[in-house]
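Final report, results section. Input specification for complex C-07:
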Amino acid sequence: MEVREEGIIGLIGPNGSGKTTLFNVISGVYKPDEGEVWFRGRRIDGLKPHQIYKMGLVRTFQIPRPFYGMSVYENILTAGRDNPGENPLKALIRKLWHDREIKLSDKSIEILKMLNLINNAKLRPYELSGGEVKLLEIARGLVSDPVLLMLDEPVAGVEPGFAHEIFRNIVRLRDEYGITFFIIEHKIDILFNYVEHVYVMDRGRVIFEGDPSSAAKDPEVIRAYIGGEK
Amino acid sequence: MIDPFIIVVSLQYGLLYVLMSLGLTMAYSIARFANFAQGEYVMIGAYVAAFMFNVWHISYLLMIPVAGLVGSFVAVVSYLVFYRPMMRRGLSSNAIMIGSIGVMLIYEYIIWIFSEIYNNLFAPKFDPKRLPAAVEGVDILYLIIIISIASVVLLAYVYGATSIGRASRAYADNPMLARISGVSETKVMLFMWSVAGFLGGLGGALWGAYASQVTPDMGFNNLLRMFATTILGGMTSFYGTVAAGLIVGFAENMGIYALNQAFGVPTVYKPVIPFAIIIATLLIYPQGLGGISLRNIRIFVKSFSTKS
Amino acid sequence: MPVLEAVFGVIYSIGTFFVIYALLALSLNLELGYGGISNFGKVAFYAIGAFAVGAIANRIAFMMLGKIFDITQTNNPNIADPFKLAEVNSIITYVNLNRPDIALPSYFISLIAGVLLAGLFGYLASYPALKLRIDYLGITLLVFGEIIRTIGNSYEALVAGPHSMAVVRPFAWITSLGYPAYVADMAFFAFSLLMLIIVYILLERMLNSPFGRDLKAMRDDELAAMSLGKDLAKLKAYSMIIGSMIAGLAGGIYVAYTGAISASEYIPFITFIVWTIVLLGGAGNNNGALLGALIWIGLDRILRIIKDAFPTLPFSVDLLRYLLTGVFIVLIITYRPAGILPEKEIKTVAWRRLEKEIKAGGGEE
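Structure output:
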């Protein structure tokens, strides 16, 4: 599989086809039994998740994993990268991380506004609705200055009008900042409006790759879905 | 070359560890937490037997099963009064373990306070060091062997062949599935705790006679060695615990003997051997003896070669 | 004035104990409340600090006197010789009262050594913290504490094992200058209070930061924290090193306060006390740690008062302390595991910007 830089690539397939497992392998949560994963000219399979994150590859989780002991806002701030204040000795000297913290806070607030979460910023994740927690998951991915952002079902549980707005923002972020997106999604009707290339998986294998309209017509793809669920 | 006395001692320790630790394994397997109070069921059993023998001159042989029953009672009460409320609040395994430390402290010091009160107020005094070396003419060694082997065999039968045993194993495997299939969680729990406490009390009575004394901290002192047994056994494995108990008993006694003879290591370091077993098992092969299978060994060996 | 003496006496004993338990609680709060590390071996690091002061300070003092420090039987370093020990005790007592030129450097050098040594062991302990499940980690660290205690008790050349050995005290010489005893006591109390204040300020600064957020993230969800770039090995190492250094400091203060060291004191129950304090006060909140320590000291005082008021009770009131600790643990875990004080937000400059933003937004729907 190949994800072109600055593209918006989709990954679909029936339940259990291995999409999230693939994300886990790419992001270093699992070690592959065979095969290789390359990112920007470097081999990354076998690396730890935090090392892969440092290279610019960030993923979100299908079932959101917020930090329940912190507020929504702190959750997002935590996802920011390269903050000198993360070192305990440097943390003692505020001057060393003040500027980075300001930039991070501005960006976080901007993302909160974009996702309509600004009024919930001080709440704890368990006080949010299911859809809002999903948005928090996306927000953490966005604030981390990714080169490649892998989103796992970003709009599940989000009402369609807003889902389209999220995807419009994804396109805008790609256009403005050059972020590459690799997106797993079940709502194919929404996804296909925004991706330029899509991979289809079934039972652990890639069964199709191409543009969305061809995917919709491909007999293999249709068979995989009718056998499973839509 | 090897003093046969050490072998006998190791055997007695090992069998007693098996008896005392099975309850710990059962609790971890079914209630899913490391029960620090298990050592107190042992201690209470030992105290009951010693007290009745000492003060009211009741036959110690009779007191052994009574100690078991008392241990059983205490374990069930602990479940109903302490652990079930904690479980009902959805506390994590680690949190309940912390709670069990509190339970352990409560039992240890209630017994301590009561024995002080008793000795200050009543006569005849309770002498925690006056215990029978032979029970009704039968040497402690034979009692330990008979009772522990009988218990292991009985337990294996009960958990293997009876319906409550099958229900318990199903519950240990997958609690939610078992509940949906009609297994009564309360029955499984009550049964498990009564058996765990019974074995603990039994072990306590035997231990008291073997050691010729009971002390309020014998629960905690033995607890860490019981943890060594259960952890080496694989936390949830019945046969693993049985094998591990014997291994810990031998490693501890023959080990310190060998170290003492060969390197002059003082015998006061004996407790370090079970400690080392705990740390080594958890860091090197946490699945323990019960986790030994061809697949696991392959994974274990592989983990050395593909370290990045 | 006897009233002044009594007041100072109370401040000294209650105050110093408060400092010691507060330090231990802050240490555990860092590891557990922020880092999510279940350190059931807290007493081990406390003991390492204590042992370091006991073993090193005395040896330095002897070295400075040109004497040889020897407390064990001639061919057996595992067993103390009571006569040699008595002689060492009297020499140390002499140094404490008359030789500030020896007592001060001996104590402070060994205190620093103890803190660093405890930190080193904390670093070693972060390896199992990384590898093991939380309940297995607790057992492992508990066992580690017992190993430290066994070694301290059995290798009597170190700190005379269970026998009480006198320890260098930094300010006892003040009494020899003619001042009442409470002046030296207050000096020591001031020193220990200063240590607590410094540790508290540094911790609050260090934890109200991105580092603090990273620790909480690791505590709440290791997988998500990893996936967002947090190096768990480093974070756990930082927690354990800093936490253990603070515990070591507490140990070094404790032995100077009592003036003696005995390895048999460092039992798991001390760890359980610290856990009770942190859970009661509220894990994740440094003020909670202080509050818990205060409550504990208060309870201890009440028990002492009961003990003095009812000398004819048929049992030892000290045992009640243990019983009550158990009761507390059960009650807290069952009914209020979050403790008294809630966890606070990490308020960096970012937080203030958010508040400004929300106010400017005028609170839309």
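Chain C touches chain B through 40 residues (CB under 8 Å). The longest helix of chain C spans residues 2-34. This concludes the modelling results for the funded period.
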